[in-house]
Amino acid sequence: MVCDDANCLPPTFVDLNFKISDKKPAAIDFDKKAEKETVKVIESKKKDKSSSKSLLTIFIIAFISGFAALLTPCVFPMIPMTVSFFTKQSKSKAAGIRNAIIYGVSIIIIYVVLGILVSAIFGADALNALSTNVWFNIIFFLLLVIFAISFLGAFEIVLPSSWGTKVDKQADKGGIIGIFFMALALAIVSFSCTGPIVGTLLVEAAAGGNQIGPIVGMLGFSLALAIPFALFAAFPGWLNSLPKSGGWLNTVKVVLGFLELALAFKFLSNADLVLQLHWLEREVFLAIWIAIFGALALYLFGKIQLPHDSPLTHISVGRLILGLITLSFTIYMIPGLWGAPLNLISAFPPAQHYAESPYGVGFTKTGEGMSSGNNHSEIPDGAHIMAPHNILAFNDYDKGLAYAKKVNKPVMLDFTGHACVNCRKMEQNVWAKDKILPILKNDVVLISLYVDDKRKLPLGEEIDSKLRPGKKLKYIGQKWSEFQTIKYGANAQPFYVLMNHNEENLNEPAGYMPDVDEYYDWLKEGTANFNKIDFD
Questions:
Q1: Residues 335, 349: Cα–Cα separation, whole Å
Q2: Domain segments of the chain as ranges
Q3: So what's the architecture of 376-535 in CATH?
Q4: CB 394 within 8 Å of CB 383
Q5: Which residues are bridge partners to 394 per DSSP?
Q6: Which of 54, 357, 374, 416 could form a disulfide with 423 if both were Cys (CB 3.0 to 4.6 A apart)?
Q7: Is the separation of the CB atoms in 451 and 10 below 8 Å?
Q8: What is the pLDDT of residues 117-140, one digit of tens each?
């Protein structure tokens, strides 16, 4: 499920037709014309503003990560060495400033080229597929776990030493070329610290589905890394204000390792959600995060020692404050095991209804909190589900519509996805509000249609695709995704529609709407129009 700050897009399903006996590579059976029409519909609905905000978010996160990389044991000690080189080689202050600028620009070029290569190799379509592909999510999970274990001190990820030797020889030549190779030498020598951070950034940017995401990410990262090197090389007197190298550098590295380990489980959760395996449900996910951040708090308080840590005689004020923040966050997550919404991290753990309890975290079998206005005894077994906050919902369009007619209530279609981050934000931060929840429970019949549901349609219920003539829709998610595209000319999630029993819209459909008052007005407008039609 590919998301930016406002919308999510469903996966693209591709049929692979091949004969095992032929022993030939599989040929992709893909209708290019239909695919282009679908993409055109999707792109017409996407807003440039949302895309810009998404790239800005990637840039800011990458920029902060660059400063974090600067404070690691592989990079920080390189600053005085670099300053010493430029001080000796530059004949004047002006030459020193010029060389420092060239050095900083060289660092940026090296990392941006890496981002360009990732974008060029995978391409936009492949990047869009990454975030919803089960195997890619599992690979990303394993990759981040390896990065985390490296940061925790079990081993170091290093490039071949011969690379560094060859680059050093080129750096000795001097001039612009020599300065560039000095920057390249920095990238290679510091790889054991920057590699995991760069890898994580590329994974996150690629999973965002935007082709220039990896380029923007590397620009932000390299800019944060280059600015301090260039400034200190240009003004070596500033070095006196830098803190001395020491055990605190390894502490930064270990903290990053814990954060990467926590992030890794988000990718594993995505794979579990798409396959609906229920292996990593909300309680399990939160228990893992509580354990990770609890261990981080103990580490910061000096109760846990890792391989490369220096002896800790006392705890600094900064370390104590960070430990208290981490401990507070850990305690904050604990009530989530029993149903607390945890709005601060609503985009990360599975939704409340994806839990060990068949009725969701904190829900009871009796349906406590459900509206007494709905006669649930009239609903056939297995026809409904429990949505977040104990809302009665259907995941079958026809059954939901039939029930709405029986109880004489408008229908609210909720086009959503198991791995849709923005859908979870709406459910946790908007649906849960006191002025919204009663409407969803009492005044409408909710039909939640998951466009990334990769379960196969029952045998005999496969239908012909209207967007791809001659092809059949084999998966539940394909059915609802194509239904949304054809009927409403949109293919982004979340997407909400209020309609009457004749399947006519009661007002304009809505997308991601984090403003509670705006969403409330939209709901009241639709339900009022339904009552007016019913009265007439």
A1: 13
A2: 51-243, 376-535
A3: 3-Layer(aba) Sandwich (3.40)
A4: yes
A5: 447
A6: 416
A7: yes
A8: 876 766 544 555 555 677 878 888
